[in-house]
């Protein structure tokens, strides 16, 4: 840690003038354990009683500290929420701020860049090594603890964002906010850059076309027992993707996704994907999904339909070196109803139907050379059962998973 200050102001006391503070290479590991305790709560509890407090004269002990600018270089931060099964990792964080901290109301000019953000919830990696940057002027009102901002200088990989709103400290554990964001660009490639397997050094060489829209908001209060409301809207129209060294494109990509939660109550979250379509040559893939009441009683209305020659996938999508994929897949399945109906054996109240047929399927990779072989699989779905009419295949446990001899 480095600091530059006015030495005479420190000797005289009263108002100590600090020109700048620099923190280098901080390593921060924040953990919420299984019992909900946090490792940053290190203050000893106040055991003193205040029944008859004594008067203390503080008129002669005034102290002030002014700071002009600060910076953080190469920070590494992890946040692990074990009860929520969430992990956030931030690599190579550089942040700086400049403003007159002696004023009740002032503008803080900030610059932030992050080398990699990874976020895992459950087993789903929502973000993987995503690069980000932001330049923002934040209006700070110390009297009301309100931070107001508006900027269009935010980048997440190739995606540019504009945002505006405010964040307010209401109490030590309660925050109010109203933040809105959107992507000014409609270039499909910018959205594509968020997909971990797509964002590579060759991204600029990938041929793309199509239009997109992306927007969202966070509004309400955060407390230890409540989250703010939020919404995310994403659409893709007439998307087209072709790798520079592959012969065929993935085309006619159509996607609509809306995630809404009006009040922050987890059970009020609604995920609606009424349309997801793409075509590999003349083979279409169609999906739709509606999820409601995920906490109290999960409701699902979903369907998937595809007929693919898996041996042709490597003509459209780059597989890992050494990977082999073959076989014919024919799937047409749908499910609709509350999960509680299945748990209570009320199969007449849950609609599940369709079938999956898989023939001559082979999957192997460099790390799994023996692979999986399925000569034939025919599965029929009903609310009560998954009926496997025919199955023949071979499977050998990968060497890396076998116990040492």
Number of helices: 3
Q: Helical percent range? A: under 10%
Low-confidence stretches: 55-61
Q: What is the distance, rounded to the nearest whole angstrom, between the alpha carbons of the first and last residues? A: 51 Å
Class inferred from helices and paired strands: mainly beta
Number of DSSP strand runs: 20
Largest sheet: 20 strands, mixed
Summarize the helix and strand pattern as letters: EHEEEEEEEEEHEEEEEEEHEEE
Mean pLDDT: 85
Instruction: Please tell me how large the radius of gyration is.
Output: 28 Å
Outline type: globular
Amount of beta strand: over 45%
What does this structure look like?
The chain has 405 residues and is mainly beta. It contains three helices and 20 strands. It has helices at 7-12, 188-192, 339-343, and strands at 2-5, 15-24, 27-32, 64-81, 86-98, 105-121, 124-141, 146-156, 159-171, 174-182, 207-222, 229-242, 250-261, 270-280, 283-292, 299-309, 324-338, 351-364, 372-381, 386-395. It has a 20-stranded mixed sheet that branches. β12 (229-242) and β13 form a beta hairpin. The radius of gyration is 28 Å and the shape is globular. It starts with a strand and ends in a 10-residue tail after the last strand. The model is unreliable at 55-61 (pLDDT under 50).
């Amino acid at each position: 840690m480095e600091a530059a200050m006015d030495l005479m102001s420190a000797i005289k006391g009263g108002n100590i003038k600090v020109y700048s503070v620099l923190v280098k290479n901080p390593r921060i590991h924040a953990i919420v354990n299984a019992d909900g305790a946090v490792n940053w709560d290190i203050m000893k509890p106040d055991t003193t009683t205040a029944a008859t407090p004594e008067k203390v004269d503080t008129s002669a002990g005034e102290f002030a500290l002014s700071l002009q600018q600060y910076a953080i270089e190469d920070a590494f931060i992890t946040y692990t929420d074990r009860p929520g099964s969430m992990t956030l990792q931030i690599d190579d964080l550089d942040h700086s701020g400049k403003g007159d901290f002696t004023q009740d109301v002032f503008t803080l000019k900030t610059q932030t860049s992050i080398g990699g953000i990874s976020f895992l919830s459950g087993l789903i990696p929502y973000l993987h090594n995503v690069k980000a940057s932001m330049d923002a002027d934040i209006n700070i009102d110390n009297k009301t603890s309100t931070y107001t901002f508006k900027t269009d200088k935010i980048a997440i990989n190739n995606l540019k964002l504009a945002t505006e709103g405010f964040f307010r400290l209401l109490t030590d554990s309660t925050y109010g906010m109203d933040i809105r964001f959107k992507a000014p660009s409609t270039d499909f490639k910018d959205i594509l850059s968020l997909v971990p397997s797509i964002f590579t050094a060759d991204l600029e060489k990938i041929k793309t076309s199509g239009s997109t829209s992306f927007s969202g908001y966070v509004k309400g209060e955060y407390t230890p027992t409540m989250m703010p409301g939020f919404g995310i809207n994403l659409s893709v129209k007439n998307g087209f993707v072709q790798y520079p060294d592959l012969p065929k494109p993935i085309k006619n990509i159509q996607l609509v996704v809306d995630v809404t939660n009006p009040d922050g109550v987890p059970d009020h979250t609604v995920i609606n994907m009424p349309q997801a379509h793409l075509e590999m040559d003349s083979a279409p893939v169609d999906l739709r999904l509606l999820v409601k009441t995920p906490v109290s009683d999960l409701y699902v209305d979903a369907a998937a339909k595809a007929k693919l020659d898996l041996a042709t996938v490597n003509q459209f999508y780059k597989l890992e070196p050494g990977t082999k994929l073959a076989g014919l897949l024919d799937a047409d399945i749908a499910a609709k109803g509350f999960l509680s109906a299945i748990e209570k054996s009320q199969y007449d109240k849950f609609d599940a139907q369709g079938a999956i047929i898989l023939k001559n399927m082979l999957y192997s990779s460099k790390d799994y050379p023996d692979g999986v072989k399925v000569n034939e699989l025919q599965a029929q779905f009903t609310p009560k059962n998954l009926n496997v009419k025919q199955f023949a295949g071979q499977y050998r446990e990968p060497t890396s998973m076998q116990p040492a001899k």
